[in-house]
Each structure stands twice: as C-alpha cells, then as structure tokens.
Specification:
The complex is a heterodimer of chains A (130) and B (193). Chain A is mainly alpha-helical and 130 residues long. Chain A is built from five helices and two strands; from the N terminus they run ααββααα. Chain A starts with a helix and ends with a helix. Helices cover 35% and strands 26% of the residues of chain B. Chain B has five helices and nine strands. Classes of the chains: A mainly alpha (130), B alpha+beta (193). The A-B interface holds A 4-5, 8, 11-12, 15, 19, 22-23, 25-26, 28, 31, 34, 37, 39-40, 43-44, 56, 59-60, 62-64, 66-68, 70-74 and B 8-11, 13-18, 20-21, 24, 28, 34, 36-41, 91-94, 97, 123, 158.
Chain lengths: 130, 193
C-alpha cells in the first residue's frame, strides 16, 4: 500500500511540474548557459507535438499514473496497466532526451527533473509493486 | 449478511490528479495562448509604455557586427517619421526566430520607416551581441543598452518587444513576443497613412 501511495505522490509531483512547464514562461534561473537553457528547449520546434505543448503529454502521463497508483491501493490488477504505462513513459523520456541532446543541443533542467520523476516512478513500480 | 463494500481512500485520492488535469485543460482552452516572450527582470516599477503614450527620448552607443562603437545615437521620438523600435537580447530564442521577419520588414519599409533595435545587456556582453548582429544581418541602427535603462524607461518586461512610434512621438502600437510579418506590416501600413 505504501508503494502505491508513494507512486501516486510521485505522479502528482510530476503532474505539477509538467503543468508548470506548460503554463509559465521559463524562469531566469533555468537559463545558465547556451547549453543549459530551458528557454532554448521550450522555444524549439520540438516544444510542441501536433500543436500541443510536449509538456502537456507529460502531464497526461503523470496524471494517469497517479490515478492508477491510488486506485491500485485496493485493485491489484491495475498494477499491470501501470507497468505497461511505465514502459510508454520511459520510451517518451528516451526520445525527449535524444531530442534535447542531439537535435536541440541544449538541456532544460526543469524538463530533466520531470524525466527523473518518471524514471523514479518506473523504479518504484518495478521494485515495490507486485 | 453480505459485507457492505466501502470506498477506500485510494479511490478518493485517485480523483485528485484527474481533476487537476481536467481543470488545467479547461483553463488552457479558456485563456489566451502564450506570447512567446522571454521575460527578464527590469526595474519598471510596474509602469509600462502603452499605445497612446509618448515615447521617451534616449541616447545609447551604437553597436554593429564588429562590436560596440564609440559613437552615440540620440533618439528623438518627434522625428517627423514613423519609427519601428524593437527591444531584444542576443540570447533570446524568440528574438532569433523573429530576426528574419524584422529583416523582411526592413527590406519592404526601410525607405519610409526608421528602424532601431535596442539590444539589452542582461546576462550578455557587447561581443555576443555583435555576433548576433553579424549572424542575423541586422543592417539598420542597433544600439546597446548595458544596464537596461532604456528598457526600464519603456517598461519592457520581456524580449522581443516592439513599438511603432508616430512622427509626433506617440506610441501607435506595442507588441510583446513573436509576431507574424503580416501583423506588423499591417500596423506599419496603418501608421504610414
């Protein structure tokens, strides 16, 4: 049960961060050099997919994961969905990291924080949820 | 006697992320789209120059692709000509995106409109600004505002910001963030009537 709550809270944190990235202009602390620059990443052509902010897809992923985690407190079958959803999330993280490093040649530290939350969620699910 | 099924707190908690997401999507649909503006810290005291206001005069050093020049440029808003004034930073991605648009505007309106770019010195230096000018081929008057004094006087909150100033010094239009060529051209056509 604690594992489900923990994953749920991770999901909420990721959701809050993704919504922040979608809504708010990049803060100044996020632009450190030309390589570590949230503005460069979030102003790039890759900041939107099919006209929708990329971070909003992340928000949907975190929202679904958080909802599933809380429901999994007493519905064990949902764990199967969560594991599959984790794989989707990890694939998304891999693609976004590739885009940042290879195509944009810049890194957004807030985006990286969201990626780490997704990875941490995956670790928690595969280690602690059966 | 069958046991009454109770809803666990997990089910209640599950509503939170879904509700947050739905509320946010509704908010996105209802509110206007983002301005594509890079915000910066300026000491405007909450004041910002708007349409109808009188553009302040100022004096700044010129800068070009070779660097900061030891030559001052005095901007007098009551110049008798329409002025297109844009505020940028060389590191600002939206400013870079807009560079070809402004170049296009200059090509089509440069004979009738005075173009002036004010490049800010926040988080940068004249050398990097000169590289920007050289890279994007800014062929009109570009000035360097190292301490953002002119930025503050004009109430510039972010870059790029554009002002169209009439021959009498009155601000005819102000735009914040990326704009389409058509939108800016339309305003210049209006100002030139």
């Amino acid at each position: 049960m604690l594992a489900q709550i923990f994953v749920g809270l991770l999901g909420l944190a990721g959701l809050a961060l993704s919504l922040y990235l979608t809504l708010v202009p990049t803060p100044e602390f996020c632009d450190i050099t030309s390589f570590i620059s949230c503005d460069r990443v979030l102003s790039s052509p890759y900041a939107k997919i099919a006209g929708i902010p990329t971070s909003l897809y992340g928000a949907v992923w975190f929202a679904a994961m958080s909802t599933a985690a809380f429901l999994a407190v007493d519905r064990r079958k949902i764990t199967v969905f969560m594991k599959g959803w984790t794989v989707v999330g990890l694939l998304g993280v891999a693609v976004l990291v590739y885009v940042e490093l290879v195509l944009i040649n810049a890194v957004c530290i807030l985006c990286t924080a969201a990626h780490l939350l997704a990875v941490l969620t995956a670790v928690a699910i595969f280690l602690f949820m059966k | 006697m069958p046991k009454k099924k109770t809803t666990s707190y997990g089910t209640y908690l599950a509503f939170i992320p879904a509700a947050l997401l739905v509320a946010f999507i509704i908010y996105l649909v209802v509110t206007p789209p983002s301005q594509n503006l890079t915000t910066i810290t300026t000491n405007t005291g909450g004041q910002t120059l708007t349409r109808g206001g009188i553009a302040p005069s100022f004096t700044l050093n010129k800068i070009d692709g070779n660097g900061l020049r030891n030559e001052k440029y005095e901007f007098n808003p009551v110049s008798g000509q329409v002025v297109f004034l844009d505020f940028i930073h060389e590191w600002c991605v939206h400013c870079r995106n807009m560079a070809p648009v402004i170049e296009n505007l200059h090509r089509n309106y440069g004979g009738k409109v005075t173009f002036i770019t004010v490049a800010g010195g926040y988080n940068t230096d004249p050398q990097k600004t000169a590289q920007f000018i050289s890279r994007y081929g800014l062929s009109w008057t570009t000035l360097y505002d190292p301490q953002l004094e002119v930025f503050n006087r004009y109430g510039v909150r972010g870059t790029p910001t554009y002002f169209i100033v009439g021959p009498d010094g009155q601000v005819l239009a102000k735009f914040e963030g990326e704009q389409s060529y058509e939108r800016l051209a339309q305003e210049l056509d209006q100002a030139l009537k």
